[in-house]
Amino acid sequence: MRLLVNFKCMDDELTPIEQCQMILGEHFENYLIVAADKPHECEVEYNNSFAALGLAAIANKVVTDALLPSDDYEVDIEWDEDLDDDDSYEDF
Question: Is pTM, for the whole model, over 0.85?
Fold first, then answer.
């Protein structure tokens, strides 16, 4: 029980990224963490540079496939021609 209490105290001193690293490192062979707390900036952490390249490539494909139209998924945008430049979006 004393070891558990000491471990909890150590957790309080860890950053959220360090906590993620500990949890992911315990359950997965490789991990890649990308987090942004400010616009146009990100923090990247990984445990294996070669695996991180592969994970980043797969993540890019998954996100790109989800956002871009494809043969199976067509995006149909209907523009509201009645919207003036002076109109506020908060009015909707």
Answer: no
